[in-house]
Amino acid sequence: MRWNSLFVSILATVLLPCCDVFLSDIGGLNEQCAGNGDCMDDLVCNFGNCGEPQGLDETCDEKAQHIGPVCKDGLACINGACVPAGQEGEPCMPAYAWIGDQICEGDLHCIDGICSEAGGEGEPCIDDDDYAETGTCDAGLRCVDEICTPSAPDEVAQPNSQLSWLRCAIGSVWDGWECDYVDGLAETYYNWDEVKIACPSGFRLPSRQEMINLLDDCDSSVLSGDQGSCSSCYESEVCNAMFGNAMSSERDYWTSAIDYGSSSSSYDDRHWIVSFYDGEVKLQYPSQAQTDRVRCVH
Question: What is the pLDDT of residues 143-155, one digit of tens each?
């Protein structure tokens, strides 16, 4: 028994101070805090101290509300006091929109000073990055110049041309705002054998000329059919307008153009590659190990 008591005493001496360090990181009642994450689960950070959520007409810290609610459910901190969140059709204060949807009840948004449901096509909205996750427009719409506008389709037409391109490279899909990679893959590359069947039905691999027509300021060697460089896609008016928000750090793209070698062996054939990243137009030998990205056109 004496040894058991000694063992427990040692454990208490070693472990309790250790545990106390971790517990001290979570604020209890009236302890200092910088945000709700610094307080215990049932407490909020109000005026720099952990406390109970404030009730109706009780004072609250507006500056703290942008990092977490400080009032009880159904209340919002406005002008330093907890007041009822607005019902649909009731006025709200757009100046406080930065605190999020807490100033209006439930899924309502403060739009043009009125607590409103998400906007339909052509209706007003809040064009603000703070609403990027929740949005103030119905599904399939996005806020452009404070008006709910249909999201861009999967295809994009090339100006002054009969061509239409898939907005995203193969392996990613358009989510209404940007290209989202399938299955969470950061990038999708294909070797030449895979490229030949990569485009969906009705689409094909673009030619060398079709790719460079998207880019500005191509040098004379490119225009004469040789290797060289053009402006990047981001620096080119047509390319950036079509794909600017649909690209990541995308570099080389396959084209359908082939420079056939002097011998009968297909290993002498080189394929034309165009880079959207730096505008480089170059030849490369295909191999199982050589992979690049794919855009499709029809």
Answer: 777 788 775 568 8
Domain holding 9, by residue range, is: 1-84
Q: Same domain, yes or no, for 165 and 180?
A: yes
Q: What is the mean pLDDT of residues 230-250?
A: 80
Average pLDDT across the chain, whole number = 76
Note the pLDDT of residue 250. 62
> Side chain identity at 67, as an amino acid letter?
I
Q: Would the pTM of this model clear 0.70, i.e. be above it?
A: no
Question: Is the pLDDT score of 106 beyond 80?
Answer: no
Query: 202 and 181, same structural domain?
Result: yes
Question: Residue 71 contacts by C-beta under 8 Å, 6 or more apart in sequence?
Answer: 53, 54, 55, 58, 60, 65, 77, 82, 102
Q: Is residue 295 part of a domain?
A: no
- Positive or negative, the CA dihedral 8, 14, 16, 22 is negative
For the chain, the domain total comes to: 3
Q: Are residues 91 and 71 in the same domain?
A: no
Domain identity same for 168 and 103? no
Residue 244 has pLDDT above 70, yes or no: yes
Which pLDDT score, from 0 to 100, does residue 58 have?
A: 92
Amino acid 99: pLDDT: 46
